[in-house]
Amino acid sequence: MPVILVSGFDAWGDLSANPAWLAVEAASPQLPSDWEIQKIKLPVSWSSAFEQLRDAWSYDVEAVLCFGVAPIDGVAVERIAINLAEGSDVDGTPPPHPSVIEDGPAGYWSTLPVDTIHRALVAAGLPAKLSAHAGTYLCNALLYQVIDHALWTKPGIPVGFIHLSNLKSPGSVDQETLARAVELAIEATLSGEGDLPQDLIKA
């Protein structure tokens, strides 16, 4: 039975509970009848975030959707991961190398149906946008590593990253809306309505 692996990050900084993980945990998407969902909470750690995701990545995983927070009001569907790592993690540790993967390509395209996801979010009335790239912090690194891993192990499956509001700005959506965004993103990912040619994986 195919599995969609969905992740959110654990608490960090002044977030005693990470809205991304709370949204993933609360989400109850309508899955195709033959699909299962597996959820995992990842540490905000350069050394172990991707490793824990990879350990949970079984042969049955046919889609991977990762979530994190950013200082935005709603939802940002990320299109590109760049091979650049900056910033200290929850333990105050910097990345081991300025590149996410040494000698890797400058960037990778998300293989999610990003336009389909964006349309679904907007149609539901959520403040959503397409984002050029996922930044240079752990969210971006996770996206880069996930795409790279999929490319070598099961090329062509939909994998990607979506930023959710950290709920700190006055105009932010609420936690319930973030959970709905996660549901819609998962449902759109598994809808079969792809919109990104799979030969455009490398940026």
UniProtKB/TrEMBL annotation:
Question: InterPro entries, per this entry?
Answer: Peptidase_C15 (IPR000816), Peptidase_C15-like (IPR016125), Peptidase_C15-like_sf (IPR036440)
One GO biological process this protein is involved in is: proteolysis
A cellular component term, taken from the record's GO annotations: cytosol
| Record's keyword annotation contains Ubl conjugation | no
- Record key words, sorted: Cytoplasm, Hydrolase, Protease, Thiol protease
Q: Which GO terms of the molecular function aspect are on file?
A: pyroglutamyl-peptidase activity
**Top-level lineage group:** Bacteria
Q: Which Pfam families match?
A: Peptidase_C15 (PF01470)
**Record has Protease as a keyword:** yes
Q: Which Gene3D superfamilies match?
A: Peptidase C15, pyroglutamyl peptidase I-like (3.40.630.20)
**Family assignment?**
Belongs to the peptidase C15 family.
> Which PANTHER family does the UniProt record give?
PROTEASE FAMILY C15 PYROGLUTAMYL-PEPTIDASE I-RELATED, PYROGLUTAMYL-PEPTIDASE I
The name under which this protein is listed is Pyrrolidone-carboxylate peptidase
The scientific name of the source species is Haloferula rosea
